[in-house]
Amino acid sequence: MSKSEWAHTCVGIIAGVDLGSRINNRAHRTNEIDWQRLIVRRGQPFSLTVHCSSPLASDLELALLLKQDKITGDIVIRQRTAEGSDDKWWLRQQRAQDEVLLTVYSPARAAIGQYRLAFEDNVMDICFEILDRSKPALSNPSEDMSQRWDPAYISRVVVAMVNANDDAGVLVGKWQKPYTGGVVPTQWMSSVPILERWSRSKTGVKYGQCWVFSAVACTVLRCLGIPTRCITNFDSAHDTDGNVSIDRIFDVHKQQVDSHDSIWNFHCWIESYMQREDLSEGYGGWQVLDPTPQERSSGMFRCGPCPVKAIKEGELSVKYDAPFIFAEVNADVVNWEVRPDGQRKKLSSNSTQVGVNISTKSPYGDEREDVTLQYKYPEVTEVAPQTGDVQLKIKYASPVFGTDFDVIYELENTGGAEVRCKLNMVSKAVTYNSVHLGECQSSTVNVVVPAHKVHREVVRLLYEQYASCVSEHNVIRVIGVAQVSGRDQSILKMVNIPLSKPEITIKIPGWVILNQRITTTISFTNPLPVPLQQGVFTVEGAGLVSSKEIRIPGRIGPGQRVSVQLTFMPMRQGMRKFLVDFDSDRLQDVKGVATVVVHKTSPLFTSMLPNLRQRYGNVFSLFFGNRPAVILNGTKAIREAFISKANDFAGRPDELLLSNLTEGKGVIMANHGPSWRDHRRFALMTLRNFGLGKQSMEDRILGEVEHVAAELEKSNGKPMNPQILFHNASCDIICSIMYGTRYEYDHHFFQAMIQMMAECSKIANGPWGMVGLTLKVMNDHSYVKGHVKGIVAEHRASRIPKQPRDVIDSYLDQMDKREKSGLFDEEQMLATLLDLLFAGTDTTSNTICFAVFYLTTHPDIQVRCQREIDNVLEGKERASFEDKDRMPFMQAVIHESQRFCSTLPLSVYHATTKDTELQGYRIPKGTLVIQNLSSVLYEEGQWKFPHEFNPDNFLNDQGELQQPEAFMPFSVGPRMCLGEGLARMELFLVLVTLLRRFQFIWPEDVGPPDFTPLFGVTQAPKPFSMVFRPRDSHT
């Protein structure tokens, strides 16, 4: 048919096209940019669905036409029967009734840009706008478009456009006050407002400094599909004359004279990962790019891309801008004295001062990753400059802005005779890029330093001395110059003292739900001895809230605390950062950050309790049908009930599912009395006798971990759900203690035990917990109980009295010993064995699941654990429970996992054994009592960070382990969980062993993690998949 006939036919046949934006964007990892529009990456296939009004005829060819601005003609994508080539667009199609699924393959060298997509005002479109408004695009559009496949070309265009020095770029740079008509650079908290303001105004946004330039460039290049990361370092050199040295000039009075070269206190740039087809082989990989306008490159303010490898090897002829970048991290620092006749005298030099702690953010979390050795070979630390036997040092504490602080100048004489020195001491306010703003203090003293002694001069810097001249960077430069009598050379020492800022307190509600309003409280205390005015909080959080300002009316007096509230509706689930900035007339750039976990849904019954507690207090009652129940909340009420009045609250209700299953026997559901007391004592004693805290128990646990590790290794780095595996391992450990047997994970009896515990946990404390038994639970329980009877019979036949092999043998010994008491019989034994099974499996395995889940989603904490483990276990074949005392951070992580997951949110229900009283309330005998353990584990005032996962909740200021009284994950009192001791050992040995051998990774293609737990007697994480990648450093 003709083209016109074909087009007419298609108009009648094609009813619509589904771009599959959600699915494709998630697969291409662009769903955080947008999920309504299709945003895909080059070289990776994506799928479209064509809906037809009737099935396509076999003689019709379906083609896809793409248009892009400035391209002459259309891109026609056709079906290929064979595999397509890497440099062409092609597609495959699958037909089913009236639908056609198209899988589209794009070349890796496809031009970056927008293909037939409607314009919307968001970051992706702004990034395309940056390319389109660049000088190359405006001067020669066709040439520009022909090079947009090349990441080196794209990145060079972007870093030039991020600064506004040569073109209609994004940011105007300014390095010191006043910032009239713009935003103080320290106030920016993200790139999005900057890009949006630039797109609206069509002019450069005021103002930026190096970290702002690098952050914006990083955002743009990532959005355009080029892997990019921010880099920073301390003592960064700005070499203006190309001699790869920084020359600092002092006059004869040791006052620094302005020079073109400078050393910035810190500097930020970016690296992008790419192939360099314009260079010889071996120069691909990370490339340095710097959008901060410092020096021109090919006539424009830009820098790079330059291979990091070329910087390390000193290959300064490699393009682009290698000499300037090399000097930033490698230049020598030379201090010169200029005499009245103009002659220079070298005071000192240092070849290791520049380029310190070159760092980036770890891809696994918020921790710093040191990349110094990617830029330079290891350097030998130079000895501090000395004149003969005299050495000068400058010491200081960690001062806070707004306080007075001391600077100590130390002159040490290591020689055999006293020396006389003239000591000049100067303090100046400087910007982070070494611009001098004014002198804070200056003094000169003549001192005598005896042989082998140290002389100290203490200078107090007062707030009123530095407040008027210090910049928003809050840096004080302290210089000491010592002139020793009779010697020609002076001793020069210079340090930059950063002044830290006060903290902003952010309180987030305990449970944050997607698309439900929450109210946060933000607080700040004025640390200055003078009032603040024009106070303003700026808040922002990706997926939480767009940038907002909250102004503080009037003055904020010295020491005054101000609080504001902000209500917003989270838009995306998962882990989010809530950012706050405070600024005023005298104090700027005070930052605060809180981690917010946005859940998809509420945790059912437990979500009601915080609101009820807030309304009715720590002790209130609810009715379950016609049955009243008293709910206890908070540390004080729960400790009073279950410790101070333990016997009054030690009963069990007899209407629950588990009560019916156990018929009141055993330990967990047995009522308070002699039988319960004797069986609990027996259970705890037997666990101790069989190695709890001893080597034999370690061997059982570590042996089981080997089976777990073997299963994890079989995953070959592919996503897997580890939950069943952890349940199997915990169950097998307790089975080896009870029955003396280890089961294969697929054994029918073993699987029945696992299933029974899972079903009981789901409904025991749930809505059916007081109604009755389900047929499934009854059948599983009956089967397990019958099998255990068979194991007991085998033990009777093979045992040697008083030589127990396991718990069953120990119980049979007790039956022989206490035959007349009637307290120990076979029914009691079966109930006790099942109690131990439940206590030793469900709580521990769910806690391990939660801990692994948290470590996977908090990779910075995971890295800290692994560093501590590697350090403590260096040279050891395996971990030991005794190692815990040398791993305070690891223990803190385990405790925090137990706290944050609240595995036993309501524990097991209690009942009063007699009429009693609690906090002024009279409670009758037999009343159902529920302890809300979550109210304790998240209680305000008990924890540093009650609503976020943070191991610092269990560490003091010295990094030592501490355990607040509110830590009661297994409840408290005589009826606390039987499995606590076993759980402590198991959690430590399992997690340490797995962290030593594997890296826990959250897969990018499974969406954000859902922190909402599954409710039951024990809470469990929702099913999740993760990657266990073997660690190269495992010994």
Ordered list of secondary-structure elements with their pairings:
Layout: H1 3-13, E1 14-18, H2 21-27, E2 46-52, E3 64-66, E4 75-77, E5 90-96, E6 99-105, H3 123-132, H4 135-139, H5 141-146, H6 151-162, E7 171-173, H7 192-201, E8 205-208, H8 210-223, E9 228-238, E10 245-250, E11 256-257, E12 262-274, E13 285-289, E14 296-297, E15 300-301, E16 306-307, H9 308-313, H10 322-330, E17 332-338, E18 344-350, E19 356-361, E20 368-370, H11 372-375, E21 386-387, E22 390-396, E23 405-413, E24 419-430, E25 436-449, E26 453-461, H12 463-466, E27 475-484, E28 490-498, E29 504-507, E30 512-513, E31 518-525, E32 536-541, E33 545-551, E34 561-568, E35 574-583, E36 590-599, H13 605-616, E37 619-624, E38 627-633, H14 635-644, H15 657-662, H16 674-689, H17 695-713, H18 723-738, H19 748-764, H20 775-798, H21 807-817, H22 826-857, H23 859-872, H24 888-901, E39 910-911, E40 916-918, E41 921-923, E42 928-932, H25 933-937, H26 980-997, E43 998-1001, E44 1013-1014, E45 1020-1021, E46 1027-1030
Parallel strand pairs: 7-8, 10-17, 30-36, 38-42
Antiparallel strand pairs: 1-2, 2-6, 3-4, 5-6, 9-12, 9-19, 10-11, 12-13, 13-16, 14-15, 17-18, 19-20, 21-22, 22-23, 23-26, 24-25, 24-27, 27-28, 29-31, 31-34, 32-33, 32-35, 35-36, 37-38, 39-42, 40-41, 43-46, 44-45
Helix pairs in contact: 3-7, 6-8, 17-18, 17-26, 18-19, 18-22, 19-20, 22-24, 22-26
